[in-house]
Amino acid sequence: MRNGRYKLAVLATIPLLAAACSNGGGDNGDSADGGGGDLSASLTGAGASFPDPLFQDWIYTYNSDVQPGVDINYQSVGSGAGVEQFLEETVDFGSSEAYLTEEDLAVAAENRGCEAVQFPVVFGSVVIAFSNPDLDGLVLDAQTIADIYSTEITTFDDPAIADLNPDMDLPSDEIVPVHRSDSSGTTAVFSHYLSTEVESWADEYGEGKELDWASGLVGGQQNDGVAQGISQNPGGIGYINQSFAQEADLAVASVVNADGTPIEPTLESTIAASDEAEVPENFQFSIDNIGGEGYPIAGTNWIFTYTCGYEQASADAIIDFWTWALTDEGAQDLAGELGYAPLGPNLTDRVIAELEKTNSENGSDEGAADGDTDQE
């Protein structure tokens, strides 16, 4: 059934610095404490809109209650732009629902002169949302979703949908599929799911942050743009992060998982999906073939930093903020309220060990002479 609306804390707007993204200074403090109140830095990050509601709440709470001297400006520009800005070194950290590939990592090392660091911070579901509230709980499977987005299914009372929903009075309304028009990690998660489950989709459309969509579909910028496109079009249907569906009060589908069970997208079913993920040492993974009580279209958000090139105050603030976000009980409660699944304890320990590699290759007398984002 429909989820409640989330409460998003108001965050003062801070202009994004295009070329000089952090100029932290002052006392370094102890980054392991996650809340000593003695750090001073200004950080910028950019990337996925998928976790933006949670990131803005985290940033607001951290700045208000934990480290008032640390200003963090996160720009929700989409995963593709987030990776691009990270590789161009115009931000202190990047964010994406698609991990950095070996090619990306090679570019990062060449540009920066040291290795990049990437680690997951949260899991979330990509839901299929509708403008029509009467469709809340509509059951879909991978094939019907693929056929809707390839325009082979054009009305809600199509026999393939009716077979999955024998007890629902389906409208004959024309379906208006809405997709991301920007380079998107949400699209990467959505298209990976369809490519894994539907051979014809894999052959014709494939997977990635950007696709060559069928003609006649509606495009929207970022998750909120897709949510708006769904709401504004009678018959609108689209794929968005669960939090955006909650905020827009949209009806959502139950999706049939690998065990043949229709699963509603909830925090519990997202956690169940994330529990099935096999996470390798390099943190490059997808969440596939989800059964049991797990919701089948689940994704991961990664954060990217570098092992060199930061002023130490900035590096301390990066490590402190993400350590706090991953370990503080209140921060994890915020994630759950918005429908995001936190990492498990063992994975959290692994992630923090990886996070602490940030700036680890800087020598005691080396600043950021070679590619520091803190300098012009």
TrEMBL record:
UniProt-listed NCBIfam families: 3a0107s03
Region (Disordered): 356-376
Domain PBP: 40-329
Name of this chain's protein: Phosphate-binding protein
Keyword Transport listed: yes
Compositionally biased region (Acidic residues): 363-376
Keywords per UniProt: Phosphate transport, Signal, Transport
Family: Belongs to the PstS family.
InterPro entries: ABC_phos-bd_PstS, PBP_domain, Phosphate-bind_PstS
Organism: Nocardiopsis terrae
Signal peptide: 1-20
Entry-linked PANTHER family: PHOSPHATE-BINDING PROTEIN PSTS
Coiled-coil regions listed in the entry: none
